[in-house]
Automatic annotation (TrEMBL):
Belongs to the class-I aminoacyl-tRNA synthetase family. IleS type 1 subfamily. This is Aminoacyl-tRNA synthetase class Ia domain-containing protein. Pfam families: tRNA-synt_1. One of its GO terms (biological process) is isoleucyl-tRNA aminoacylation. GO terms for molecular function: ATP binding; isoleucine-tRNA ligase activity. Residues 7-90 form the Aminoacyl-tRNA synthetase class Ia domain. One of its GO terms (cellular component) is cytosol. PROSITE patterns: AA_TRNA_LIGASE_I (PS00178). It comes from the Bacteria. It catalyses: tRNA(Ile) + L-isoleucine + ATP = L-isoleucyl-tRNA(Ile) + AMP + diphosphate.
Length: 93
């Protein structure tokens, strides 16, 4: 863990992610949308397992020749949808 920041900095300096994306350009696409972080409830080991499994799948697809970019998800839809329903007069139960 002590060396992780050093290793990450080196990977960023070497543009590793960009090189992988360039290498797989034009290959069959595989996208696994990673959902937004959980906002309700305490974090637990299941959250870590979820992220680890998704990381494993995306990396293995990339290593087997797919163009598999990492696509994190963000909760950008909840509030606009709620506001649209409020504007239409829909009330919460």
């Amino acid at each position: 863990p002590k060396r992780e920041p050093e290793i990450q900095a080196k990977w960023e300096e070497m543009n590793i992610y960009e090189k992988v994306q360039e290498r797989t350009k034009g290959r069959p696409m595989f996208v696994l949308h990673d959902g937004p972080p959980y906002a309700n409830g305490d974090i637990h080991i299941g959250h870590a397992l979820n992220k680890i499994l998704k990381d494993f799948i995306v990396r293995s697809k990339s290593m087997t020749g797919y163009n598999a970019p990492y696509v994190p998800g963000w909760d950008t839809h909840g509030l606009p949808i709620e506001q649209a329903l409020t504007n239409k007069g829909v009330k919460r139960k």
